[in-house]
Specification:
about 230 residues; alpha+beta; SH3 type barrels; 2 domains; five-stranded antiparallel beta sheet; disordered N terminus; disordered C terminus
């Protein structure tokens, strides 16, 4: 009898059960909701920017009026159409840029931009970033590593960028090879610090860049190696 009472007292009540179910549902719903919200926000942002520069005669609601012979007093936007227009326009610009005429126009426009003091700095910086991030042949951020930062004995996760070049490489102590390391911040990995480390002071990790980013975003709560061992 005492054992039965003891077992009943050990059983969780309905409030604890509901709380557990709520937390489980929250864990399942949160990443799905954030993903949908992010995609919807990006599509809406692109649509708003695209249709803002499209003349009123070519807006979607005008085609609906013509197709169904109805009058629409307010503007009616179809989500995603602006994204399709942006993709088609970007593909067309890329196709033109590969041709002789397109390359000539780009060189002419860049010469004009280089004559503008402020604009040329913004354009050159944006061009270098886009070429670095979007270039398929670029090996940026292909490895995660551990470095001692901000002092000896304290370790931080970093992403291997590229080998130092130019003046920075020439000023390296005793000709030692320097590697540029991006050290992200928690929980926002898009901001961080650019540091130059000797290659001998860098410890490369077996985990992927995506897994290392998860570790940074979660503030050390999610360890990819432990998850893989559990799954096995």
């Amino acid at each position: 009898m005492i054992e039965q009472v003891f077992d009943k007292s050990r059983r969780p009540g309905w409030i604890a059960s509901m709380r557990s179910n709520f937390l489980t549902g929250l864990i399942i719903i949160t990443p799905i909701a954030l993903t949908i919200w992010l995609i919807w926000s990006v599509v809406g942002w692109i649509d708003a920017r695209v249709w803002a520069i499209v003349p009123d005669a070519y807006q979607p609601h005008r085609y609906i009026q013509t197709l169904y012979n109805i009058q629409i007093s307010e503007q009616y936007d179809i989500p995603g159409i602006g994204l399709v227009v942006f993709l088609v326009f970007t593909i067309f610009v890329g196709w033109m840029g590969k041709g002789f005429v397109g390359r000539s126009l780009i060189r002419w426009a860049e010469r004009m931009v280089n004559r503008m003091p402020v604009v040329r700095s913004v354009y050159s910086g944006a061009k270098q970033i886009s070429e670095t991030v979007l270039n398929k042949k670029n090996n940026s951020f292909d490895k995660a590593c551990l470095i001692e930062y901000p002092r000896k004995g304290i370790w931080a996760i970093g992403f291997v960028s590229t080998k130092a070049r130019g003046e920075i490489a020439n000023l390296s102590p005793e000709g030692e090879e320097l590697i540029s390391i991006f050290v992200p911040t928690t929980p926002n990995p898009t901001s961080g610090f650019l540091l130059f480390f000797p290659s001998t002071d860098i410890r490369e990790l077996d985990m992927s860049v995506e897994d290392a980013a998860k570790l940074v975003i979660s503030a050390g709560l999610v360890y990819p190696n432990e998850l893989s061992e559990i799954n096995q």
